[in-house]
Design goal:
single chain; 432 residues; alpha/beta; 13 helices; 14 strands; disordered N terminus
């Protein structure tokens, strides 16, 4: 009976959230009308309303290539709770300028790197930013590491210069850094992150179809090499500081590829396992981002930096979510917070996957009910396995097992049934 009550509560929450966002997000309203959905009476009713992750990169490439920023505003506005009529793009000359103009008007756009070929852009409100930051502090506290200004903080990176990435970095520094903390790297940050990533995507396409000029390739490779050298200078700086304070507690904030490179540099400088004795901690999210690392890369990092599970805040999340699913230090699985409604779908994203006992495997989809700047329902590119029962650690609620993998990395066709239809809605609403 308690389980049925919980399910009723979830459906009621989904219905209230849907009704509010339907009045605000044009693409959601169009999708709901075409599907004949006016209310959410079951979890199944929500499935046709979940946006494939590709929806946030559904703009035509030519809009950025030709600098059509008014049309990019219309595209983003069709996916947002607030219209973008207040965004002045008259002086915008590139993607970075567009992002800055959006932020000036209170549209805190989150963007992917676009390393897979095309960047995605998601509109967020200040409320989204605040929820995301508070959730990070809550995850630290749940792990047993509440905010205390007693750590040296090393934000290994990557450093993108993006406002939201800088905000999370500064939050960790302000919340945990001791008064005499290690100095940060003072080298000038690389300019024009979005502009660079847009050129990277364009250059990859040009090289693939044979239209890239040799001089353009040479210039781009030179810029890429300088950016890589700048990152390596940062890591050498941090390595020297770690060696000088090897017995003091350090909190690292990093993705794994950058942290592994830092450990390589430490070894190059003569550091061995056991030389660093501070009770160090780490927070990290995300996977390898296409980087090829040894199978035991995590164990190598833990050994040289002296990090144990009780001091490692690892989480599963994505830019479509405000909240994180933090990794259970006892069981190694990810706890789903109450603010997120988890769906495990068939590979094509069209229906709920069938459980096998308490376990169910399929495509991950979520409704983050705290998302404010747009619709919080998304279908990811990840294959996950979920335990529907309580975690053996004693915490209630579903848990995501650690064997998360992207469908695209499996060599499979990462095709979501409704993706083409959703793109058509966006084109129809923006006049493209």
């Amino acid at each position: 009976m308690a389980e049925a009550t919980l399910q009723d509560d979830v459906v009621a929450t989904l219905d209230a959230y849907f009704r509010e966002r339907r009045e605000q997000v044009p693409v959601l309203a169009q999708r709901a009308e075409d599907q004949g959905i006016t209310e959410i009476r079951s979890r199944e009713d929500m499935i046709p309303l979940l946006f494939p992750h590709t929806t946030y990169k559904s703009y035509p490439d030519t809009l950025i290539a030709k600098g059509r920023w008014e049309q990019m505003n219309r595209w983003l506005g069709s996916l947002s709770t607030r219209r973008l009529d207040d965004v002045d793009v008259s002086e915008v000359t590139d993607v970075d300028g567009w992002i800055a103009a959006l932020e000036k008007a209170g549209h805190m756009v989150s963007s992917s790197s676009g390393t897979s070929g095309k960047g995605s852009f998601l509109n967020k409100s200040q409320r989204d930013i605040d929820v995301n930051k508070q959730n990070l502090l809550d995850c630290f506290t749940a792990l047993g590491l509440p905010p205390e200004n007693r750590w040296h903080v090393i934000p290994v990176g990557p450093e993108t210069g993006q406002t939201q990435h800088n905000g999370v970095r500064d939050l960790i520094i302000d919340s945990f850094s001791r008064p005499d903390a290690l100095p940060l790297f003072d080298g000038a940050p690389a300019e024009g992150f979005h502009r660079y990533m847009a050129r990277l995507s364009a250059m990859r396409r040009a090289m693939a179809d044979g239209t890239a000029a040799p001089d353009d390739i040479a210039r781009f490779e030179a810029e890429s090499a300088e950016r890589a050298a700048q990152q390596d200078r940062r890591l050498h700086h941090f390595a020297d500081e770690i060696i000088a304070h090897r017995s003091e507690d350090i909190l690292f904030s990093s993705q794994f590829p950058q942290l592994f490179r830092l450990c390589e540099i430490l070894r190059e400088k003569g550091i061995q396992d056991g030389d660093i004795t501070g009770s160090n901690a780490l927070t990290s999210g995300g996977g390898l981002k296409g980087t090829n690392l040894p199978a035991d890369y995590q164990e190598q990092i833990y050994r040289i930096l002296n990090i144990v599970p009780e001091r490692f805040l690892h989480y599963y999340s994505m830019q479509e979510l405000n909240n994180r699913m933090f990794k259970c230090p006892e069981e190694g699985r990810y706890h789903v917070p109450a603010e997120i409604v988890l769906f495990v779908l068939t590979k094509d994203g069209s229906a709920l996957a069938e459980p096998d006992g308490n376990l169910v495997e399929g495509r991950a989809a979520f409704v983050d009910t705290t998302v404010d700047g747009r619709w919080g329902g998304t279908i990811s590119g990840d294959r996950i396995t979920v335990d529907l029962g309580p975690c053996p650690c004693g915490r209630a609620g579903e848990t995501v097992m650690p064997n998360i993998v992207r469908y695209s990395d499996l060599g499979d066709d990462d095709k979501i049934t409704c993706a083409g239809t959703m793109d058509a809605y966006v084109r129809g609403l923006t006049g493209e």
